[in-house]
Amino acid sequence: AQKITQTQPGMFVQEKEAVTLDCTYDTSDPSYGLFWYKQPSSGEMIFLIYQGSYDQQNATEGRYSLNFQKARKSANLVISASQLGDSAMYFCAMRDDYKLSFGAGTTVTVRA
Amino acid sequence: GAVVSQHPSRVICKSGTSVKIECRSLDFQATTMFWYRQFPKKSLMLMATSNEGSKATYEQGVEKDKFLINHASLTLSTLTVTSAHPEDSSFYICSARGGTRDRGLSYTGELFFGEGSRLTVL
Q1: Which one of A53, A100, A109 would you mutate to disrupt binding with B, by most B Cβ within 10 Å of its Cβ?
Q2: Separation of alpha carbons B94 and B71, rounded Å
């Protein structure tokens, strides 16, 4: 069975600063994929970044980067230069045969 | 633009009525669609996996007779909440992965999500 853990229910960050969202996972499958999604108050799920278990380098997408530490089974999301529009709920997820298991989510509030 | 569309985005109904939510893949054939339920400020919980032309696979604890899922075509899956009660009030969201054109699956293994449907049962 898979398990995704996000231990930070909520975080505040100052505009233009970086913020790190924690995510740990547990799986016995050597092949897996890790995702981060953003869910603003409107509800839609926005794909941010993906990391494959065999990827050698940490994934980056613009201001988003994934700090992938395979041995520790962690996949933390780093948002650099935070913007007010980054305020949202963020979910870490793991893929198993294209079904996604989600963490509990972290609410990020960016302060001006 | 959106590649997966859900309708309606909001629905309010009386207790005891049935509500149908549609999930459409707009420019690709979705061989598999997934239905999730989300309570306020909570995570998404997978309810069922819907494969075109076959019966849906439900997750443990999800009532099949309560949440009817139909995937009659490669671009449409429907979730019907039968005899809805206030405890069924929730945010329901679908996702889709691609088939022959595989739009729902990029090299990242990305799935496309619908906009979600907020159900309120009075």
Answers
A1: A100
A2: 12
How many angstroms separate the Cα of B20 from the Cα of each of A78, B65, B66? 39, 14, 12
- The owner of tokens 């309120």 is B120
pLDDT digits (tens, 9 = 90+) for B49-95: 988 888 899 999 999 999 999 988 889 999 999 999 999 999 999 99
Interchain pair A43, B34: CB under 8 A: no
Q: What number of C-beta contacts closer than 8 Å exist between A and B?
A: 57
The nearest alpha carbon in chain B to A50 belongs to: B108
Chain B residues near residue A45 by CB distance under 8 angstroms: 44, 93, 95, 113, 116
Contacts for B85 with CB less than 8 Å, ≥ 6 apart: B15, B16, B121
Q: B97: which chain A residues are within 8 Å (Cβ-Cβ)?
A: 98
- B19-48 residue pLDDT tens: 999 999 888 788 789 999 998 878 889 999
CB of A69 within 8 A of CB of A51?
no
Q: Residues A70-106: pLDDT tens digits? A: 999 999 999 999 999 999 999 999 987 667 889 999 9
Q: Which of A49, A98, A106 to probe the B interface (max B CBs under 10 A)?
A: A98
